[in-house]
Structure formats: C-alpha cells, structure tokens
Amino acid sequence: xxxxxxxxxxxxxxxxxxxxxxxxxxxxxxxxxxxxxxxxxxxxxxxxxxxxxxxxxxxxxxxxxxxxxxxxxxxxxxxxxxxxxxxxxxxxxxxxxxxxxxxxxxxxxxxxxxxxxxxxxxxxxxxxxxxxxxxxxxxxxxxxxxxxxxxxxxxxxxxxxxxxxxxxxxxxxxxxxxxxxxx
Length: 183
What we know:
A hairpin with a 5-residue loop joins β6 (114-128) and β7 (134-140). The protein has helices at residues 25-40, 81-84, 141-154, 165-170, 172-182, and strands at 45-47, 57-60, 72-74, 77-78, 87-106, 114-128, 134-140. 28% of the residues lie in helices and 30% in strands. It is α+β, with helices and mostly antiparallel strands.
C-alpha cells in the first residue's frame, strides 16, 4: 500500500526514531509499504519518519544505476547492488570513511527542493535486517550517500541541516512556504 509522505515541517521529521527491537507483522507491512511508496515517488530512499512513523527503519535502492558505486562489500564479501537492493534496514550505526564529496541531493519530504550537500564519500554501515541478520556494508558513491541521508532521517536530521549557509539563505522563502502549506 502506498502511504502518504510527510512533508517538512511535520514534527515527526525532527524526532529521533525509536529502536526497532521486535520485528512484528506491522513492521514488516510498514517496510513493504515503504518500498512501494518509495518506488511510486521515484525516490532512492525512504525513512519511516517520512511516512509518519518515528522508528529506525529505512529503505534504500540505487540498483537502477549500477555505475554509481566503485565497490560494495557486505560482511567482507564483494556484492552487487542488484543482490542487496532494495535494502531494508533497522537500527543503523555508521562509520564515515575517507574524504568528503559534494553532490546534489533531494528529499521526498521536500518536494521540488534540491541542494549541494557535502558528506563523506564512503561509509561502513552496520545495520540489522528484518530477518535478524547483522550486515556490515562498506560502499561509496550514491549508495553511501543514500544510506547516510536515510540514517540522518532516523535521528531527526534533515538534508537542509547540511546545506551551506548561503544555500539556506537562498531557500528561506521556499521553506517558509512549506511551513505555511504543510505546517
């Protein structure tokens, strides 16, 4: 089922999500709905707060662009994006690696807003699956960026928080309109 996406400035987007300690049928249904919602919205990631649920659950799928990474290791084994995506994960812990890179990001909770965001180019993410497996994912490029972006959501951080001061000033009017339209 496609769920409505929550838009800024909804307070749920600023909450730190609760740890998922028990994967219930409701959590599984939520995850399935989130995958469907993300694809319907043409996104590459979606976090539970973006559908109004303050939980540490997110989905990422960048398999449409296999060239967007230069490597992917899962638990030390080489893997392809097609083998792991869509990645549904809970309770992530990130280790940010290497130099930073700036690239344009958007967010389904901020329709029509994009901005250059600087993030570490590589990530080592320790995540849990809904099946109770722990995965250690090491990757770079868009997959790394998407995992970082969605994990930010789980801790109440938004991509606008990572924008430069100049960019924040330039979108002030758009944010004010969003507050009036969705607040």
